[in-house]
Structures are given as structure tokens and as C-alpha cells.
TrEMBL record, chain A:
<dbReference type="GO" id="GO:0005886">
    <property type="term" value="C:plasma membrane"/>
</dbReference>
<feature type="transmembrane region" description="Helical">
    <location>
        <begin position="188"/>
        <end position="208"/>
    </location>
</feature>
<keyword id="KW-1133">Transmembrane helix</keyword>
<dbReference type="GO" id="GO:0006865">
    <property type="term" value="P:amino acid transport"/>
</dbReference>
<dbReference type="InterPro" id="IPR052157">
    <property type="entry name" value="BCAA_transport_permease"/>
</dbReference>
<keyword id="KW-0472">Membrane</keyword>
<feature type="transmembrane region" description="Helical">
    <location>
        <begin position="6"/>
        <end position="29"/>
    </location>
</feature>
UniProtKB/TrEMBL annotation, chain B:
<keyword id="KW-0813">Transport</keyword>
<dbReference type="GO" id="GO:0015658">
    <property type="term" value="F:branched-chain amino acid transmembrane transporter activity"/>
</dbReference>
<dbReference type="InterPro" id="IPR003439">
    <property type="entry name" value="ABC_transporter-like_ATP-bd"/>
</dbReference>
<dbReference type="Pfam" id="PF00005">
    <property type="entry name" value="ABC_tran"/>
</dbReference>
<dbReference type="InterPro" id="IPR017871">
    <property type="entry name" value="ABC_transporter-like_CS"/>
</dbReference>
<dbReference type="InterPro" id="IPR052156">
    <property type="entry name" value="BCAA_Transport_ATP-bd_LivF"/>
</dbReference>
<dbReference type="GO" id="GO:0015807">
    <property type="term" value="P:L-amino acid transport"/>
</dbReference>
UniProtKB/TrEMBL annotation, chain C:
<keyword id="KW-1003">Cell membrane</keyword>
<feature type="transmembrane region" description="Helical">
    <location>
        <begin position="99"/>
        <end position="118"/>
    </location>
</feature>
<keyword id="KW-0812">Transmembrane</keyword>
<feature type="transmembrane region" description="Helical">
    <location>
        <begin position="252"/>
        <end position="279"/>
    </location>
</feature>
<feature type="transmembrane region" description="Helical">
    <location>
        <begin position="291"/>
        <end position="307"/>
    </location>
</feature>
<feature type="transmembrane region" description="Helical">
    <location>
        <begin position="49"/>
        <end position="68"/>
    </location>
</feature>
<feature type="transmembrane region" description="Helical">
    <location>
        <begin position="218"/>
        <end position="237"/>
    </location>
</feature>
Amino acid sequence: MAWLETIVNGLLVGSLYALFGLGAALTFGVAKIVNVAHGEFIVLSGFIGIMLVGIIPIHPLLLVPLVIVIVFAIGFILQMTLLNRVVGKDPIPPMLLTFGLSIVLKNAMVEVFGATPRSINMGGLRFKGMEVFGMTLGVLPVIIFVISVSLFVALHFFLKYTRVGRTLRATGDEAQFVQLFGVNYRRAFGVATALALSMSAAAGMMLAMRSTITPFTGGDRLLIAFEVVIIGGLGSMWGALIGGLILGVTHLVGLRIDPNSGLLYPDIVFFIILTIMPRGISGWRQ
Amino acid sequence: MTPLLETSDLQTFYGDFQALFGLDFSIAEGETVAMIGANGAGKSTFLRSIAGLNTQKKGTIRFAGEDITRLRADLISRRGIALVPEGRVMFPSLTVEENLLMGLGTDRAGAWTLKKVYELFPALTSIRHSSSVRISGGQQQMVAIGRALLTNPRLLLCDEISLGLAPKITNDIYACFSEIKASGTAIMLVEQDIVRACQAADRFYCLLEGRISLTGRPADFGIEVISRSYFGTGDHHGLA
Amino acid sequence: MAAVTTMLSRSPGRHHLLLMPAVLLVLALCAVAAPFVVGEGLLRLSSEILLIFAMAQMWNLLSGYAGLLSIGHQVFVGAGAYGMFALSIHAGVNPYVAIAFAPFVSGLLAALVAPILFRLRDAYFTIGMWVFSEIVTILVGKSNWLGGQNGLTLSALRDMDPDWISPISFWWAAFAAIGSLVLLAGLMRSRLGLALLAVRDNDVAASSLGIDVWRSRFIAFVISAAGTGLCGAIYFLGPAHILPAAGFDPNWVVIMLFICVVGGLGTIEGPIVGTIVYFGLRQAFATSGNWYLILMGSVAVVVMLVARKGLWGTLHARYGISLIPIRREPPSDKTFGI
């Protein structure tokens, strides 16, 4: 039973990992950008959340949409003013630009927020547990799981059934040719990055609710995000969800076997999966 | 009367390589013009230059009186120029119908609706929810044309529609052009197949190594003269 | 000055066959003499500059020339250093000599993991490399033989004359720096170098020309890892102590990347410029804490926006300047008569 509990908890934390990866998958899928600053945006969103919680006296969970909107705007501006100037056939310039950006963001956050671990005060909710089929699960992780999966479903419906979603998918396929249909692909890139960062905004907020963050947390989250997208297959949304859940379970099971192993087991699973399927889970199908 | 589209001294480059050498071209409202030429003559480059996909260019392109030489491709499509690109270019993540719906992105009002496209190409009705890359080449070509028509263009640019298709299917597709012409749209056909191009067009241009080598009405020249111009074996070369 | 270098670079290669060794000889002589002239502090800084330069050059070889962007190169810094420490501690090898074996340790590590990593392409490789370095870091941290989280101390160094540590480090560093230049210049004039460029620009086309893509990349990868490992070993000679968090610090690759990006990826001179910019910024703003890092990141962003090929790469593209000519000029080159 204890093992089952570990696995279920792994799925719960895995949903958050999946959300880390979702943004990375979206930026790569549409704009073909490997965003090295993705982890910093996750943490930045967490800090924005922490700040807003101090100012606006409503429940932190209700602030998630507000942070999403703020970070959406940041993402759109980032793509339109900086990234669009370096996108092209060569994938390396945008990657290097976001690399510089990640250094700037990380150290700017140290200046502004300091290096001590902070978190969003969730009151009693943080340590509240509940019994499910004889297992004891945290209420907050379950809420986070529900929100994460809902965001996946929402994004799925958005991409599948709206005109903007259709345009984004087409842009990911053939950025040059969407222009023939009145689409400014640079703006589509902007929307994609904005959406991607909003997903990380939600993830960052919830990370700050579950545990603590520092400006240096971004590096590890980026690694998780990258592992998630790559296990899933770059650019694949459902691949990211599966990848996140696999990593979450491996992480917690690994920590149970060896409490000092850190991300060792997810890293090894990542390697094994890629050795079998060099293009990730979704690449495997094709 | 001013032509619908007019290029003067159009030159297009790929980096240091020049593909077009000063093309003067015009097409009137409702007219059908063929551009014929061998592989690598610059036909596709010409269409891509008009549509704004090639940005390295000199000279001028005027559309309905407006200079569109430097206009962004998405704005050109919103002005009413549609391109059926070479190789059809499906959006693989989109179904057949979603590919067609992309055509509505230009927000242009006009006669063409999704329903009318399905009437024009009934074969698409039954596969509307299929993946756009799992259908036949002929069906893809219909999707590509339908998608372009849904932008309700004033000028339709068609790049090598017959390429890689069985003759019967090409015939079926060409048969639709009378209907498209009837809607008032000017059509520009790029073809390697001279006979077919001359049958469909009011006028033709022959393109040879990035330059126009012959132009006029098909009836005034006959297939043989046009062919010679096509292969660059005109009289002035002393070959025939 | 610019005109002179332009001329130099454009004149056919024969002059350089004489010029290059002459320049290198002078550099080597300077390096030999430096410890007797320069003070302790400056000597250490110089060693660091030379090592960082050599590492950047090794990263450049893999990412700029072979087209394999690695964000896990810190694994080879740590592997080389740990290899040297382990040889000295567990096998009793003189640390100064053990340095010479460091490249074999990191090179071997690269050779072993290449069959897995090379299955991954582009971004997949880049990130796979990072994950690999994370795995090694954690495993080293869990290995008692390698000192676990407490790291290793080079106790053998205590019995040696402390006055010689800095000079010997410096000489090794100078060897690594000059060696990296010679290696890269030589490599790029070789068949392998041409093969690498072909593979980087279009691996499908390269393989259709009969180039063994896998083998070319493999050699570049192993050389790059070996060189990086050598630098790592030399670097940790000074502190005589190593921790997993220091040896496998991701900042190593951040510095290499910064230097190459700012200077110009895929040019031999780029890392020289990048190293100057990096240490210039560091020395000028080191006291301002994080602001110097913020500045460094901003420089990288600005360079990407205005000079995508890096400072040197942009100059080279615009004016054709090069200090160390590695391109073989076509035989019909008319600049012969300038």
C-alpha cells in the first residue's frame, strides 16, 4: 500500500512536471525555439505570485488566473520584441538569446527577491491530508493535479477547436506558408510563446504553493521541463503529459529507494527511453 | 485600363544567386494567363515573389494600382492574391476541413464558402475529417485549390497543379477552372505541360532562364513555336 | 592594422606555414619565462584565463565546428579533474604527472557515452548531454571512492614545494591554451576538419559524399572532451580540493558558451575575443556582485540581436579579416599579387 501511495503521489507531482514541459513543448512546437529561460520564467511567475499574495487579500488559488494573464503579456512582448528578431532556419540563435536571458533573469531575481527560499502561504491547506482508498494524500497536491490536467484539457480544446488554435498548429507545421492565409507568423509565434509562458506561470505558482522557490530553482525545473518534452517528443502536448507523469512517478519511487538520489532515477529513465526511442514517445508512433 | 497585377523589371535573388532578370508582366481582371517554362526557369520564384514569400527582390509589383513590392506576405494575401503552392503544402497537423478553413484567415468577403468548395470538389466531402497527409495527391491538390479559393482572391496563382498527378485527375481539376473563372477571379497558371497550359489560358508568357523569351496569345503562335521558346532553341540560336 | 591582417589572411597559405610556428614559438617562450617575471596573483589569473580560453576553444570545436551544441560540458571538466585526483590519491601518481592522464579519463567517458548520445539529434543531443552530466554528477556524489559529497583533497601536493605549484599550473595552462589553438588550426586544415564542416552544414549531403558522419562527430566529441578534461585537471591543481558541485558546476558550460557566443561560434579567433570580453567584464564589475552576471547575460542577448555571428564572426563576415587562416584558398585566388 505504501508503494501504491508513492506511485499516486508520483502522478500528482508528475502533473506539475508535465505542466513545466507543456510550455516548452508549445514554444518548440510552434516557433521551433528551445527556450533555455523557461525555468526562470517558472520561478519568476512563482515570485510574481508571492508578491501578489502580499498585496491582494484573496485566496492564492484565485490569483492563478491573474498571474497567467500577466505572464501571457510578458511572453507576447518577449517574442515580439526580442525572439522574433533571431528566429529563422538556424535554431541556435534563439536558443543562445534565451540563454543570455536566463542569466539576466536569474540574477535580477536574486537582486529583487533575494536568495532565501520563499513560498506562497497556503494557510492550513498546505499540510491538509485526506483518505482515498486507504491512502493518505495531500489535499493541495490533489488540487494541483486537477488544475494541471484541466489546463492540458483546456489547451487541447483551444488548439483543436478555435481559429487561433488552428492557426497556431498550422504555423507549427509551415510557418512560411500560413502567410498565404493572412497570418502574420511572427504574431502567431508571439501568441505561442505567450501561451507557453502562461502555462509555466500556472506551474510556477503551484510550485511555490507546494514547496519553496529561490531564483536558482529554475535550473532544475528547466531540466525537468526538457526531459518531459523530450520523453514525450518535442512539440507533442500529450507526450508531455505522459512524460511528466512518468518522471514524477520515477522521481518519487527513486527517492523512496534512495533518499539521496535527487533526480538520478528520472535522469536514467530519460536516457533509457531515449535509447529505445530517440524521438520520444510521440515520435515513436510515426 | 490598368491591369490587375503588373510587374516591371522584377528581379529576384536567393542570396548571391539571381533567379529572375527584370520581368515585365501583367494580367487583367478576370483573365487567365499561363506561364510556361522548363524546370528551373524561375516560374515558381516568380509566383513566390508576387505572393511575398521571396523578399529579396528589386523592381516593382503593383496590384490593383498599389505598390506591393515590399508588402509582407500576410498582407498581400489579405489584398486578394492567393497562391496554390508547388507541392501542395498541406498543414499536416490539420484535417482536410481545417486546411480549407485556413483560407478564411484573410477575412475577405466573396462568393466562395466552404459549402461551395465542397460543391466544386465533391470528392472532399467524404474525407473532410481525414488527416491531410493521408489522402491522395489529387485530393491534396483539391484541398490546396479549395483553400486558396476560400481566401476569395482577385488573383489566383497556381504552381504546377499537374505535377505528380495522373492525367485523368489533372483533367478533372482543370475542368474546374471554368467555374473559377466564372466567379471573376484572374488566374495565373504555371505549367511545364505546354499543351494543357495553352488550352486553358487566354495569354501566355514563356520563361527561359529567368527572362521572358516569348509572350502573346497561344493561337497566334502555335504549339511548335512556343515549344522552341520553352526549350531555348529559338531561331536566333541557330538550332531547331 | 585591419588592412594588414586582411592581406595576411588573403595571401596564400605558404607564408603562414612559417608565420604560425614563429608566432607560437614566441608565445611558448613568453609562457616559459612568465612565472619568473610575473607576480603570484597575476600568474594565477593568467592561468585561469588561459584555461578558460582553452575550454571555450574545446567547446567551440564541438559546438561551432561539429555542430553538436552541448550544455553538459561541465561533465568533462569534472571527469578530468576527478581522474587526476583519483590517480594521485589511489595510485600514488605524482599530481603533476597525473594531469597528463586526465584527458584520457574524460575522453574515455565521452567515447563510452557517444553511442547513446549520438542517437539523439539537434536539441535532443543538447539536452541529452545535460542530463548525462547530471547523472555523472549525482553518481560521483554518491561514490565513496571519489569522496562522495565531501570531495577529494590532493594531499600529495602538501609534500611538494609550494612555490612551484603556481608556475607548474601556469605552464600546463599555457600548454593547454596554445595546444588548443594549434589543434584547432591543424584540425581545420585537415581532411577531418573539412568533413566536420560539411557534416555541420548538412549531414545528409555530407554522408552522400562518402563522409563518415558518425566517425567525424565521434572524433570531434572525444577530442573536445579530452581537452576539456585536461583543463579541468589543471584548474583544480591550484585549490587541491574538488567537490562534485565545483567540478561539475553548470557554470563551466555557461562560461564556455558565453565566450563562444560573444566572440563568434565556429571561428578560431572568436573565443580569443570572447575570453577578453568575459575577463574584462569580470575584472571590471566583479565587486558589484550579481550585477556583473546580469551585465554578462545582457551582453549575450545584445550580441545575438545585433551581431548574430558573434563579435569576431561579424567582423569576419563583413570584412573578411582573419588572424589564423584555416581556410584553404582556391588555387585561382587572384590576391596573390597584392
